[in-house]
Amino acid sequence: MDDWSGTAFQLPGQGAQYVGMGADLAAALPEARKLYEQADDLLGFRLSEICWSGPEERLRRTENAQPAILLHSYAVWIALPAEVRNGATVAAGHSLGEFTAYLIAGSLAFEDALRIVRRRGELMAESGRERPGAMSAVLGLDPETVASVCQKTPGIVVPANDNAPGQVVISGAEEAVAEAGKRLREAGARRVVPLNVSGAFHSPLMESARQGLEAILNETAILDPRFPVVANVSAEPVRSGERARQLLVAQLTGAVRWSDGVRCMASLGAVRYVEAGPGSVLTGLLRRIDPALRGQAVGGVAALSSLTPG
């Protein structure tokens, strides 16, 4: 039997969705199809149809994209051979994906995780309408420079994601993000790219969503994870359900420290990385954070069949 010990799982976040996601899994694997049927029943609408047939605009909506991505990632997880799942040493998820990480680690029941992320998406969309904001990707500058420029820019603008060396996302009020982008280009940024998002995620403008999410999580059972989950806002391994609850709430208005999180997973003994779910963004970031780290993206039947610990 292949040795999968020391495997880290990476779970993608919003933006990884695409029309057709998970359709091959549901067609080939009865357990995956049953999971999609269960999700449709739990939510009261056919999320499966949105995943498989779109339209893209409907799938892209925050309240649909978030449960769709969690569902796809979990379908991949349950389809993995037992020896792969049993080899999990640590997990981390990017923003939304942190909920999926706690799901695969046994901290959240599937029903609760799906319900929470659907509501999280609704809350974030509502917050974006109430307090419109913007996000931009800043390429070619270090996180410290980006943070310094944001701090000196009038208005609300903060670093929201430290995704990889040379790739930091800023978030906040539209005018402040635009002004910070201008100043960051003057400070040497190679490019500043506005993102197509429905709100200023991971910024103080998400405060109303944070409060709503806190209320939901306070009513939800969160168990200690079977293996540590590295939190976005602290880049620390979480081993307690109560600590997970606190950090999942803080995440909505706090930054995603993805680069530090990947380094934390490596420090915990991860020797290989499996990205479970749609796309391969996190596998690409992995190579930029540390070219020595090995990653595989698994989103469908073909990738499942070619999965190897080598």
Outline the structure in words.
The model has no long low-confidence stretch (mean pLDDT 97). This protein starts with 6 loop residues before the first strand and ends in a 5-residue tail after the last helix. The chain folds into two domains: 7-129 and 204-305, Malonyl-Coenzyme A Acyl Carrier Protein, domain 2 (3-Layer(aba) Sandwich), CATH 3.40.366; 133-194, Alpha-Beta Plaits (2-Layer Sandwich), CATH 3.30.70. α2 packs antiparallel against α5 (62-79) and α5 runs antiparallel to α8. It has helices at 23-28, 30-43, 47-53, 56-60, 62-79, 82-86, 97-104, 110-130, 143-152, 174-186, 207-218, 241-250, 258-267, 281-289, 301-305, and strands spanning 7-11, 88-93, 134-139, 157-164, 167-172, 191-194, 229-230, 237-238, 272-276, 295-298. The radius of gyration is 18 Å and the shape is globular. With 310 residues, it is α/β, with parallel strands linked by helices.
Query: Outline, from the CA principal axes?
Result: globular
Number of domains: 2
- Per CATH, the superfamily of the largest domain is Malonyl-Coenzyme A Acyl Carrier Protein, domain 2
| Termini separation | 13 Å
How do the strands line up in the largest sheet? Answer: 2-1-9-10
Number of helices: 15
How much of the sequence is in beta strands? Answer: 15-25%
- pLDDT averaged residue by residue: 97
Q: Which regions are unreliable across 5 or more consecutive residues at pLDDT < 50? A: none
